[in-house]
Amino acid sequence: MLVILRDLIRYNLEFRIGLVLVAIVLVMAGLSFVSPYPPGEVYLVPPDIPPSAAYWLGTTSRGQDVFWQLTFAIRNTLSFGIMVAVLSRLIALVVGLLAGYSGGWIDRVLMSINDTFIIIPLFPILILFYFVLRDTMSTPLLAMIMACLGWAYDARLIRSVALSLKTREFTQTSIFSGMKTREILAREHLPYVLPIVFSTTMNNMNWSIGIEVTLAVLGFTDINTPTIGGMIYWANQHTALVAGIWWWIAFPVALVVMTFVGLFLLAVSMNEYIDPRSRLARMGGSR
Amino acid sequence: MSSSDQLPVLQVRDLQAHFRTRYFGVNREVRAVDGVSFDVRGNEIYGLAGESSSGKTTLIKTIAGLLKPPLEMVGGSARFAFLPEWDAIGRAPPEVVRRIRWRHLSYIMQGSMNVLNPLRRVRHSFRDFAWRHLGGSKSEFDTRAAAHLERVRLDPSVLAAYPHELSGGMRQRVTIALATICKPEFIIADEPTTALDVVVQKEVLGMLRAIQREMGSSVLFITHDMGVHAALTDRLGIMYAGRLVEDGETPEIFARPLHPYTRHLIASLPRIGDVEQREGLEGTPPNLAAPPPGCRFHPRCPLAMPVCATTVPAMVETLPGHRVACHAINPGAAA
Amino acid sequence: MSALLELDRVSKSFSRGGLFSTRRVEAVKEVSFALDDGTPEIFTVIGESGSGKSTLARMILGIHAPSGGQVRLTGRDVASYERHAFMAQVQPIFQNPFEAFNPLKRLDHYLFMTAERFGAAAGRSAAEAGADEALRQVGLSLAEISGRFPHELSGGQLQRVAIARALVAKPRLIVADEPVSMVDASLRMSIVNLFGRLRDQLGLSIIYITHDLATAYYISDRLIIMQKGVVVEEGPARTVLSNPTHPYSRQLRDAVLTPDSAGAFRAGHSRKAVATPGATP
User: Fold this and answer.
1) What's the CATH fold of domain A2-28+55-278?
2) Does any domain span residue C173?
3) In C, which residues are within 8 Å of A172 by CB distance?
4) Which of A42, A149, B236, C19 would be B47's cystine partner, CB 3.0–4.6 Å?
C-alpha cells in the first residue's frame, strides 16, 4: 500500500497536487479542534477587520475570526460530504450489483426505481423537504435525504460492470465451487466495481458539497452550524461585497474550490492505479 | 518446386525487440525477440511456427514496423528488397512507409473485422486501402477491384455488401483479396484461419495458395498449427522463447526434425487413424522477462547437457538448406 | 442398467429480434444419448462454431433449461435437482484457462472453497488435504500452487488446476467444453492423457466437447457429430472417424490438416487435402 502511495507521489503530478490541496483542507478541518473561539458565538472579536497579523484572514461583520470560523465550516462541510458519499455508495452498490447479477424481474424492478430517482428534479424536492420539515431539518437528516437522491447514476454504472462480470467464466467457476450469490458479489465482483465506486465517491462528494453550499447560501439549512455555505449566507445578509468586506466571501470560496479541485485530481490520478485491469497489465498478467 | 530470385525478399539478421516498461518503479525488460536471423525468398510461403510466448507475433510486428511503446526494436535488421536503403521499416520516415504499405507489403490479420470497417460497404474498405496506390477515377478503381475479385474467384457483388452480411470465412477471403489487390511482393499473414472452422479454413488456405502462386509474392505465414504448416508452407521456421531454433524446407523438417523441441512438437500431435500414445512436454515455456541462460529450451530438453545452460547455441546449416541451433546436434557451435 | 446421464430429445431455441419482430433460432434440435452408470467413458461431442455444442454443454450443466425434451441425471430431471446436490455430481471445465479464475484472487481460494462446500472438508487442514490430493492427481501439488495468482502460471498449468478443482468435489461426471483448444500444442497432450487416466483410474465419465477431430480420435470412446444443432452421426469414436458415412462428417474429416498433410496445397496437388492415415509425400 505504502509503496503504491510512494510511487504515485513520485511519478504522478496530478496526484501530488491533489494530495497537497486535500492535505491543506484536512489540516484546516483538523485545526477546528484547537480553535480558541467557540463556533456558534458572535461578536467575540472586533468586526470588519481586514486580513492582518492579529487576524490572519480578517474578521466578519458578526465579530467572528474568519480563519477559525473557516476551520469549523470546512470540517462540517467535509463531514457532510463524506456522510452523503458513503451512504449513497452503499445504496448504489447493493442495487447495482444485485440488479446486474440477478437479471430478470429483479433487475427490471430495481432499474425502474433507479430511473425514477434519476429523473427526480433535485432542487424542488429539497426545497419541498425543507418547507415540510423546517425546524427538524438538520445536517444529518439532509445528508440522508441527499444520499437517497444521489445513488441512481452510479448504480447503473455498477450494474453494467456486474452484467459483464456475470458472463465471465470465473463466475461460473465460483458457482460450481459452491459459492452463494452474496459471496460471489462481495468477494469476486466487488474488486472490479471498486474503481468506479472510488472515482464516483469523489464526484459525489463534490456534488453534495456543492448542493449543500447552494442550499445554505439560500438559507435553507441550519444556519447556526457553521458551514461554508452558511458563511457565504451570512456574508450576503450583511452585504459584505458591497460593504467591501471581501475576505468574508473570498476565503470560504477559495477553500471549497481547493477541496473540489483536490478531490477531483486525486480521483483522476488514483483511478488508473486502482483499476485492476491496468494494474494487471502493468504486472504483465492477463494475456 | 523451387523459389525463384537469388536475392531474398526479406533478410532478417540478429533481430532483437524488447518490451521495456519503466512504470511506477517497476523496471522490466521482456526479451520477446532475442536474436533472430532468417531469409524469405521470392515466390515462396515461409511459415513461422511457435506457441504462445514464442515471440512470433512480436517478430512480425517488428518486421512490419508496427512498433509502439513499450515495444522497441533494440538491435539487428529486417531489410526488404524493395526498400534497400533502410535496414528496418521501423527506422524509415512516415512518407516512405506510407508509400510501401499495401503496395509492396500488406497484411492479413487474424480478425477480419479489424480490417473491414463494419459501418461501410466492402468497396469503401478497398478504396481506403488501395485507391491511393492504384489511382484512376472512382469507377475505374471499382472496376479493377471487381476484376481482382473475379480473378481470385470471389463474387464481385461482395463489394456492395456490409461486412456483417458475410460469413466469417467469406470475410477472411475478402481480406485476402484486399491484401493482394496491389500485388505486393510481401504479405504477412498472422493466424488468418485460426478462428475459422476446419472446412472453411481449407478453402481460405487454398485461395491464399492460389493467389500466391499466381502473383509470385512471398508470404510470411504465422500459426501455431503444425498441420497447416505441413499443408501450406514451402519453408518453415520454428520459434521458441524469442529465438529461432530450426529452419528449412517444410517436407524436410517434417521428415527429419532435428531440434528436440521440433521433434516433440511434431510427434506429440495425434493423427486420425493412429492410436499410438502421445506425450506432452514437461515444464512450461520460460518467462521472457527472466529467461534461462544459454539455450532457452534446456530446462525442458531431454538431451540437455551442461554446456546448454551456459552457451547460446548458434544456428548451423546441418543438412543442406536445413539449419538448427542445438548443442547436441552441433557440438561446439556457439552464437 | 441405469443411466448416469440421459438426454431425451433435448432442444433449445432462442428468440432473437426486437419488440415487434422475433425470430426463433434453434440452437439444439432433438439430441438424445445416454451415458451408462457402470461404465466410465469419454463421450465426445464434435462440432464447429454454431453447431450448438456449447449450448448443449450448458444444458447438461444445468445453466440453461432446455426448451424441449429433458436432461436426466441418474434418472432425475436436472431441472428438479437441487443445485448443490447436482453440482456435487457434475463439474465443468471451460475453454479459456485464463478466464476460469478471477485474476485478482489466489488459485487455492477456489480449491479450498470447493473442498469445504462439496468435499465434506471440515476446517482448513482438511480442505488443504483435499486440495493437495486433487492436485496430485493432475500432476501438480499444493506446495507449487499455494499463494499463486492465475497470471503466474501457463495455460496448461491453469487448465490442470481447473481440472483439480473439479476433482475436489469428487463428481461422477465432468463436462469439458473445448478444454485444450487454448492450450499450447506441446502441453495439450498431457491434459488429454489426463482425461484418459481420470476415466481409467477414478472411474469418471467425461463429456468432451471439441472441434479437433485428432484428439477426439485419440481419446474418445463414443462420439456424436453435430451440425447446426442436429446430430448427423454417432457411434464408436474410431469407427466413425475412420469411415464417416454422413457427407458432413466426410467433409470435416477431409478438411483436417495434420503433420501428415504435407503438400496439400502445394503446386501440383489439387485443392483436396491429403489426410488419409500413413500417407506421406
Assistant:
1) MetI-like fold (1.10.3720)
2) no
3) 63, 92, 94
4) B236
Please report residues of C whose CB lies closer than 8 A to that of A176: 87, 91-92, 114, 166, 169
Quick check: C35 and C3 in contact, CB under 8 A? yes
ipTM of the complex: 0.84
Measured between CB atoms, which of B197, B255, B273 is closest to C242? B273
A80 Cβ neighbours under 8 A, 6+ residues apart: A139, A142, A143, A208, A209, A212, A227
Mutate to test the interface with B, among A9, A15, A283 (most CBs of B within 10 A): A283
Rg over alpha carbons for chain C, rounded to the nearest Å, is 20
- Is B275's Cβ below 8 Å from some Cβ in C? yes
Residue C254 lies in a domain: yes
C251 in a domain, yes or no?
A: yes
Nearest beta carbon to residue A282 from set B23, B30, B52 = B23
C-alpha cell at A101: 447479477
Mutate to test the interface with A, among B24, B26, B54, B57 (most CBs of A within 10 A): B24
- Distance CA(C216)–CA(C212), nearest Å, equals 6
Q: Tally the C-alpha atoms within 13 A of residue A26's C-alpha that lie toward its C-beta.
A: 9
Give all strands of the β-sheet with C173-177 in edge-to-edge order: C90-93, C173-177, C205-210, C42-47, C222-227, C230-236
B52 contacts on A by Cβ (under 8 Å): 287
Domain total of chain C: 1
Cα A138 to Cα A158: distance, rounded to the nearest angstrom: 31
For chain C, 281 residues long, give each residue's pLDDT as a single digit of tens: 578 999 999 999 887 766 666 677 888 999 999 999 889 999 999 988 778 898 999 999 998 899 999 999 998 899 898 999 999 999 999 998 988 999 888 998 999 999 988 877 778 888 888 899 999 999 888 888 888 889 888 888 899 999 999 999 999 999 999 998 888 887 888 899 999 999 999 999 999 999 888 899 999 999 999 998 999 999 999 999 999 999 999 999 888 888 777 767 765 433 333 333 333 33
Task: Report yes or no on C209 lying in a domain.
Answer: no
- If you search the block for the grid coordinates 456486474, which residue do you land on? A162
Give the range of the structural domain holding residue C254, as residue numbers without chain letter. 246-281
Q: Are C102 and A189 in contact (CB under 8 A)?
A: no
Residue linked to cell 484547537: A34
Strands (E), C18-89: 22-36, 42-47, 68-73, 76-77
Are residues B59 and B46 in contact, defined by beta-carbon separation less than 8 angstroms?
no
Q: Considering just the CA atoms, what is the radius of gyration of chain A in Å?
A: 22
Best A171, A177, A188, A189 member to test C by mutation, with max C CBs in 10 Å, is A177
In 3D, which of A94, A86, A21 has the Cα closest to residue A260? A21
Cell 456492395 identifies what position? B160
Nearest to residue B276, comparing CAs of C178, C193, C198, C40?
A: C193
